[in-house]
Amino acid sequence: MPTFFQTIRTIEKDLRANAARIFGSRRNTTLVFILLYSISSYFVWKKYEFRPSSQINFGKEFADQNAEETPKGAIVFLGEEGNLGAGYDGQIFYYYSRMLSEWSLNWPKGFETSFRAPRIGYPLLVSPFGWFGQQGTIFGMYILNLGLFYLSYLALRNILPEGKEYLSAIYLLSPFALGSYILLVSDTIMMGLILLSYWSYEKKKFLAFSIFGGLAILTKEQAVFLLFPLGIETLYQRDYKKSLWVLSSLLLPVCWSLYLRTQFPEWTPGSLGNFFDPLAGILGYLSELQQAIGGGGQGLVGLAKKFSRFPLLLLLLYGTFLVFQGNWRQGLAFRIGFGITMLTVFAGGYVLYWATYENVSRMFTISVPLLILWQREDESLTANPYWYLVAIVLAGFLIKLALISKPLRYVVW
For residue 128, which of 23, 157, 277, 297 sits 20 to 30 Å off, Cα-Cα? Predict the structure, then answer.
């Protein structure tokens, strides 16, 4: 008679086989992707008069300062009591792109430059849509997020070995990519570009690799979590020609950084270190949980919001465990990149990261393709628990969108 654990292993094996069969099909995966993203947008739009601008998260403070470029009919958030209605990061990419669409380098009013100005990649790619007006920019933000992400899924699927194509479905249905899309921020764009860059590297299209890689870094600095270990690997293998190509991906970011120093003398790449405060973020969140459990008065919705970050903490713990598992001779570049990702999550401060689900979850975005590529190289890697936690995060995110998140105070511009 089979034991309990044998039964569990049998069930897990059957589930894995069924998932491989279903999501090994590109058509099935694409249909689920379209359904998932359509439903998610519906959950947001229905709260705000079915206006697509609601995902950009304009804040009234910044809309007032950039009134000429704020689209008519846009949803503009007022914030809560004591909050000026600052909105979220999607708006800066919108205003940044509008600036570029008009062939101007007049920085949008109200936004600091230290952390925003280097990230020109996303606004630059959206800017041609802005030639058709402000609504064109909004449309471009949607089409770029969805189109580039799906194209990178096809690229990832193309370089996975036969029988492992289903892993690309995990990438396409990642809750972190979905969370980035819901906010129309840069994480999914960065991930799409870095996957296209790596696909070009695998296909020996090194000029395309360099351009995509440079744009990925200009979109968000996390792109170096793949490029830096890849450079180390080429040096270790003494393939110096490839090392130079990897180094060439820094050309665009370096040129843009030099230009920024002439326009904003106070800007320095070292300012990014202000985001990190090792252990403080996790300890702050654990303290928040303790108060929520012990203090009461939170209500079911309040407790659910507090615990929405708990699966991310478990993901960090298992991800850290994974860094030291498997065959050290296989997938070294991806192990290093994955380890750096876990380290940055560990080092994330409380106010800027662990205090909100959206901020800390975005730090895991690049871990998904890195682990898939690592798993492609190392058959002995026990990655399934990480994927189960990712599935739990996805389910929790959908519940949050549909049932927990309430409409914020807003006006129609």
Answer: 157
